[in-house]
Amino acid sequence: MKKIITLHDLPLGKTAIIKEIRNEPDLRIRLTELGFSRGAAVRALQRSPSGDPVAYEIKGTVIALRAGETRQILVELEVV
Questions:
Q1: Which residue of 5, 27, 36, 79 has the lowest C-beta tally within 10 Å?
Q2: Considering the entire predicted model, what is its pTM?
Q3: What digits encode the pLDDT tens for the residues 25-44?
Q4: Where residue 19 falls among pLDDT bands split at 50, 70, 90?
Q5: Looking at the DSSP assignment, which residues form a beta bridge with residue 73?
Q6: Cα-Cα-Cα-Cα dihedral sign, residues 22, 54, 35, 75
Q7: CB neighbours of residue 31 within 10 Å
Q8: Which helix (H) or strand (E) holds 29?
C-alpha cells in the first residue's frame, strides 16, 4: 500500500519517491537543481538537535532542508 505524505512527515530512515514540489518557483528551481525532482528517491537521515533542519539523502548527496521547504514537497511512501 502506498501513502502520500509531505517530505517533512517522512520518518527517519525511510525512503520515499517525490511526487510533487509545490514550493514557489524560485525555490522549486533550486530544489530541482539539487536533485529534488519527480520520481527521485529521497531518504530522511537525521534531524538537528532542535528538530529543524533535517538531512536528506538524494542521488548520493546529503542535503539539509528546513521544515518550511519540506512541507511543500509531496512524497509517496510504501506502507507495509
A1: 79
A2: 0.89
A3: 999 999 999 999 999 999 99
A4: very high
A5: 21
A6: negative
A7: 21
A8: helix 25-33
